[in-house]
Write a structure and sequence with these properties.
ten-stranded mixed β-sheet, six-stranded mixed β-sheet, 10 helices, globular, binds flavin-adenine dinucleotide
Amino acid sequence: MRATALPDTPSSPPRRRLLGGALAGGALLTLGGCATRAAGPAPATGRLALPMPDLDPSLLIREVAGLRPFRPAGFRVEPERFGDTLVIHHYGHGGCGVTLSWGTADLALRHALAQPERRAAVLGCGAVGLATARLLQDHGFEVAIYARELPPDTVSNIAGAQFGPSGLLDAEHRTDAFGARLAHAARFAHRRFQLLPGERYGVRWMPLYFVSRRPAWSPGWEWALTPELFRARTHAPGTHPLGDRYLHEVQTMIIEPTIYLPAMTDAFRLAGGRIEVRELKSLDDVRALPERLVVNCTGLGARALFGDAGLQPVRGQLAVIVPQPQIDYAVIGAGGTYLFPRRDGLQLGGTHERGAWSTVPDPATTADLLARHRRLFGGQD
Ligand SMILES: Cc1cc2nc3c(=O)[nH]c(=O)nc-3n(C[C@H](O)[C@H](O)[C@H](O)COP(=O)(O)OP(=O)(O)OC[C@H]3O[C@@H](n4cnc5c(N)ncnc54)[C@H](O)[C@@H]3O)c2cc1C
């Protein structure tokens, strides 16, 4: 079973430069389009010339698999008291923990500010723990991080990591109340990532193309909650190199974990934070910490540590191809097949195995990912 909510567009290829449109590069076109997109999806004009990735198997540089911390009801941000220790749970972000990290950290921060303690322990040093720790510091807290693994050994290092609220919860849990919290988190995070300097934090803008047979973009529920973050324009069949499909283009951010997570760790330390590598095995271990305020950002680890049996892995595998700097756009196609270009390689993904715990990459899955991407870029998917 797949974990919800990849936008329900069947497929969407990339876009890039207009031919015959003088020197209007992709970025210029994109900016030009923004001004006219506010009123709703707009058709793009001109022809899009997208450089095609070289997907030869000899260019494969690594295969990785990671476990998304998925809760059918979506992320958990909630205080729970254990004697004199207040634990604020902050985990369960499924396929969009990097995306939402700053935003759900803001929800957790509100609980922290509502009590008098100003020394805090943050459990976990992935994207969620680091954003939480930095936000607490910015609000005057003295923070220590306790974590079993540090970057580069966290799930957050495996993430794509494209800004988009995908794979967060099951459809039956889509409520107005959760939607309001999600929309707040997405907006807060979107703004926060824009404030992070590109080179230092490895955050950059690029167009994302949904490849689809449908002329109108129909984003999933999570995406549609914040339409102003994902304004679309459409490239019709015949105006781009990806076959007889529609390309629905939105502007997205790619957050490079290999740059972003070390930069966040440095920023945390520079602000006076302390990191201790340590596994907490039980609630007694948590209560024995010197801090009386604890924010639980252990991702999938919260299942064993706090007994959240609903938390489960959604395994994802990536095949990574040698970096190709000319590919400066992202693509999501049929069945969630996606390509996210990064400095450390082209990330080819699109697998979602709920309940699978293995982090050992499967060569057959890699071969399948390569084949799916060849079909996608050949205009066949
Ligand atoms: C293939 C793949 C692609 C993805 N693509 C994207 C994407 O494009 N965009 C996006 O936003 N997200 C993406 N995700 C999802 C994203 O990776 C996760 O949602 C996110 O990394 C979760 O962050 P986290 O900090 O909660 O967990 P983690 O990164 O797992 O960090 C958890 C931390 O808690 C620590 N910990 C756990 N248990 C204990 C314990 N008992 N004691 C002490 N420490 C403990 C760990 O050591 C670690 O430091 C993807 C995931 C995968 C697998």
